[in-house]
Amino acid sequence: MTDDLQPDDIRIADKAARQAIEMGVLVLLIVVFFVVSFMRQNPFAEGANPAKAIGIIVAAGLTIIMYSFLYRDNPLFKIVENLYVGVTLGYNVVISWRQFLRPLVYQPLFEPPTAEAFWNSLAHLFVPVILGILLLARISRKHGWVSRYSYALMIGWGAGVAIPLFTNSYILEQLTAAVKPIQEAVGPRGLAAANSWEWALYVAAPMFGAVLAMIGTFTVLFYFFFSVEHKKVGAVISKVGIWFLMVSFGASFGYTVMGRLSLLIGRVQFLLHDWLQIPQQ
Amino acid sequence: MSQIRNLPKHYELARRIIYVLIALAVILPYFFNPKQEFKPAIEVENIYKKIESIKPGGHVLISIDYDPASEAELYPMTLAIMRHCFKKGVIPVVMTPWPASVGIARLGCDEAANDANTMFQKKMVSGKDYVFLGFRPGFSQLILKMVNNLKGSFDKDYYGQPTQGMKALEGVNSLKEIDLLVDIAAVGSVEVWIAYGADKAGIPMAAGTTAVMTPDLYPFYQSNQLMGFLGGLRGAADYEKLLKISGRGERGMLAQSATHVLIILLILGANIRLFFGRFFAGGKGASR
User: Fold this and answer.
1) Could you give the angle at the alpha carbon of B261 between the alpha carbons of B260 and B267, nearest 5°?
2) Nearest-CA residue of chain A relative to B220?
3) pLDDT at res. B283
4) Residues B213 and B273 in one domain
5) What is the CATH number of the domain that holds B93?
6) In-domain check, residue B288
7) Over 80: is that where the pLDDT of B35 sits?
8) How many angstroms separate the Cα of B281 from the Cα of each of A147, B8, B224, B284?
């Protein structure tokens, strides 16, 4: 019999054995999880808060399932992933209804305390509600064009308000901040303090930073400026720009690693202190 | 995932070993003394000093712009700032422009109020010592309206109490009367609050963001549009240290340091392996 086995048969048998082992380990882990959970968070114990205990057990289980992806993609992970998306959407809908749509739109129009209050609400809400409903016309291919009126108003209003504010906050304020150290260095205060430690600390150092930022801005912009061929001096400038970009990417990467680890630390703190109730040092 | 599947088998094993090492580096520090010496950043100290300088009865508007997915990084800093407000007798005015943030914002208010009771022996009452305004949509329009009419933007608080005549909002009719605006965010809302809120109302602003977003804040800090900021879990730990209250941020620092050291060692190890791989292959690329 053994001589008749083909490589495919061996592979299938190996896969089946591996799946059986994985299933066995999974069942064992589930049993261990429930035993540990009920030892540390018994919802039926005297004086226990059942809602809190069950909530912690469910949250701990979902957390562990999410991390099971690190071993391999699996159906449990998929279920929890979809559950997360569904719960988030459902929560947003309920909060929007309870906090905003019901008290500010539904109740003033359909449950007004007086007739005068109704007419007052109608006068204030008629146009916004109609514009909001028009947005839903996007669902229909035939009548989708109606939503353009709402979008036109939104984009027109948004651009009109945003352009002056953003110009001030993102361009003018930033330009002022970039030039200020140089202005201070050549101003009366900077000149009066020349050749002293104070000058080096409070005038020269910020000025150096400002000049460096300007060089960085210019060289990076030049790197993305493709109308001129990057040869000779151009090649040097764009190379400097690449270095500035690399330093920026390095800083972003470092912060990203720190951020992702913080998320892991948060979950570990929850599992150790809230679920397993290991006392905090 | 398909790229990972195409890698040699020992790479797959190495990936899992790295996961185990990271898990150990995060978990083990919690079984030892987690105290670690570190100096708070100047950006964080600025916020602390600003809240210290606000007179009791002053107002700090805290906008909660994150959902539970960023809870690990941003919730500790929310708690730290609110605890500081309660300690100083400053009134935190909490709000959110995102529906998914309502639950975590309410939890933060409740937990900080309870902490004030146990830590500072102060009983905090909603509507008197703090206010949770809840959620309103239309982010940028909402901020613009708040600049001129805060109580008109939120006619009732989260619990249905009218904001007109509310003791916690005495003397506050618009964003201009707020002493400090703090945006705690996991989305790109800080820039919007700067342009539509702080710059327009002419009030000081601080931010608390996830570590991923922190590098984007430096230009605004340099231009004084932000008077300070808290970056990720480290920012929260810095603030807890200044406040002299041990919290989740400070407790997470040893685990974070351990994992950082591990990652540096892994990067060095991988580069050494790559270098020697090339060296022995006669400079023709790394061997697998």
Assistant:
1) 90
2) A174
3) 57
4) no
5) 3.40.50
6) no
7) no
8) 64, 18, 54, 6
- Residues B227-253: pLDDT tens digits? 999 999 999 999 999 999 988 888 889
What does the pLDDT look like over A133-147, one tens digit per residue? Answer: 999 999 999 999 999
- Closest residue of chain B to A164, computed from CA coordinates: B195
ipTM confidence: 0.86
> Cβ–Cβ of B102/A73 closer than 8 Å?
no
Taking the CA of residue A57 and the nearest CA in chain B, the distance in Å comes to 17
Q: For the range A49-56, what are the long-range contacts, defined as Cβ-Cβ under 8 Å and sequence gap of 24 or more?
A: A56/A274, A56/A275
Residues B60 and B178 in one domain: yes
Domain identity same for B126 and B166: yes
Cβ separation B211–A258 shorter than 8 A: yes
Smallest Cβ–Cβ distance between A263 and the set B72, B103, B214 belongs to B72
Tokens read off for A103? 């008290």
Query: Does some domain include residue B285?
Result: no
Same-domain status, B173 and B269: no
B82 and B182 together in one domain: yes
| Residue A169 contacts B, CB cutoff 8 Å | yes
Distance CA B241, CA B53 (A): 18
Min Cα–Cα distance to chain B from A252, Å: 6
The predicted model scores a pTM of 0.87
Contacts of A182 in chain B (CB under 8 A): none
Are B246 and B136 members of one domain?
yes
pLDDT tens digits, one per residue of A7-41? 788 888 888 888 899 889 999 999 999 999 999 99
Per DSSP, the three-state class of B229 is strand
Give the separation between CA B136 and CA B98, rounded to whole angstroms.
7
Instruction: Examine the domain organization and report whether B276 and B172 are in the same domain.
Output: no
Q: Is A174–B223 a contact, with Cβ atoms under 8 angstroms apart?
A: yes
Q: How many domains does chain B have?
A: 2
Please report whether residue B287 resides in a domain.
no
Number of H helices and E strands in chain B, helices first, is 13, 6
Domain that includes residue B46, residue range: 42-251
| Residue B199 lies inside a defined structural domain of this protein | yes
| One domain for residues B84 and B9 | no
A179 touches chain B (CB under 8 A): no
Task: State the best of B36, B223, B253 to mutate against chain A, taking most chain A CBs within 10 Å.
Answer: B223
Q: Which residues of B59-75 are buried (b: 16+ CB within 10 A; e: fewer)?
A: bbbbbbbbbbebbbbbb
Beta carbons of B99 and A95 less than 8 Å apart? yes
Using CB atoms and an 8 Å cut-off, which of residues 228-247 of chain B contact chain A?
Answer: 231-234
Q: Does A97 touch chain B (CB under 8 A)?
A: no
Give the mean model confidence (pLDDT) for residues B55-69: 96
> Is there a contact between B140 and A272 if contact means CB atoms under 8 Å apart?
no
